[in-house]
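Please check the following for our workbook:

***
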Amino acid sequence: PYFVRFLRTPAGQNIASLYTHRAAVASASLTNLADADSIAETSQFLATLLLIQGISDIDPKDKEELLPHLKAWVRKPAFRGRLASDASERVVWLLTEDRNMTAPLAVVRSKLQASLERCDALGCTKTCTNAELQKCSRCKSALFMKARIALISWRWI
């Protein structure tokens, strides 16, 4: 949640387009390495960025450069059933705005965003605006409605 929160701040804007560009530039060398872990890491991170920030700021040239590599990673026999293939496929869906995947991706996006507006106290189901939630002074990631609730939750951490 911390990183997703950061993506919604002014400092986190346009990270999706910057990382898409970096992935496009590096895609040929990643393909040559054929390292499933590197491709999985790159694709999973990019999928998260695109899911949260969207594709409106993505340079069409970067998309054009990256898509053939992503599709090759999805089809690569050594990657089948592994995160490299699955995450690459999610990036393809996001970059091409695949209509069959719009609803499932919207569910994932809403779950990610809902976690930013929910109190992290055990058993608490209340939601608030980000401004109403207080950051945990211990981990700097968990959000609580009140400092008293955070103290109670620390006993369970």
